[in-house]
């Protein structure tokens, strides 16, 4: 489409992941054309999109006075946040992933409370079991999408770090006054900032090996 986004000179019309799709355009008219293209493509391939699960996000401009988009003649509402492939993206504010950090820190906090709620039934969590529970139930939330949501703002990272430190202190029996370094030297766990950075760099190492035709390589 003439109004496709361009990445290093290559047009980017849309993104696909399994049955999730994100249509991209630099203009309102271009995005509406994309909806029409999608209708035709789905009909040819004996498929149908679900307008009830669709939303439109606008970055860098206001959409308050614009008419809604249509898919199968059903109006598609605007939204300021949407989850795509497990990552919550927002169009307001300077950080696209602020809500993602908030949601994942809350999910990790809930998992933490659930783990320690067992104390009344099975007794205190010993360090070895605590480490296993952390890696299985807490760490996946704290590292979710860290290869995409790079830690460019310390306040967002700190929100996740507090959950990690709180959990380790609890199962190690260490108070708030204890040195933070002890949480990692005594458990063999990585400080979250380094763990997230390592996973992101590993992903970058993979990306640079891709052919130049891949969009990730162009990025």
From TrEMBL:
This is Reverse transcriptase domain-containing protein.
């Amino acid at each position: 489409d003439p109004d496709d986004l361009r990445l290093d000179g290559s047009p980017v019309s849309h993104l696909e992941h399994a049955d999730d799709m994100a249509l991209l355009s630099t203009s309102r008219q271009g995005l509406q054309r994309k909806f029409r293209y999608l209708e035709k493509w789905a009909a040819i391939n004996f498929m149908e999109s679900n307008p009830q699960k669709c939303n439109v996000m606008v970055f860098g401009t206001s959409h308050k006075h614009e008419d809604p988009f249509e898919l199968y003649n059903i109006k598609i509402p605007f939204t300021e946040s949407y989850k795509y492939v497990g990552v919550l993206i927002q169009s307001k504010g300077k950080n696209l992933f602020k809500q993602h950090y908030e949601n994942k820190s809350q999910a990790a906090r809930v998992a933490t409370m659930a783990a320690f709620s067992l104390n009344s039934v099975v007794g205190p969590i010993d360090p070895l079991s605590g480490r296993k529970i952390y890696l299985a139930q807490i760490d996946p939330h704290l590292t979710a999408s860290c290869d995409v949501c790079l830690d460019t703002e310390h306040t967002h990272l700190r929100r996740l770090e507090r959950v990690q430190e709180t959990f380790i202190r609890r199962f190690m029996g260490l108070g708030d006054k204890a040195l933070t370094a002890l949480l990692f030297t005594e458990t063999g766990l990585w400080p979250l900032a380094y763990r997230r950075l390592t996973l992101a760099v590993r992903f970058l190492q993979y990306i640079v090996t891709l052919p130049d035709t891949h969009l990730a390589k162009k990025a």
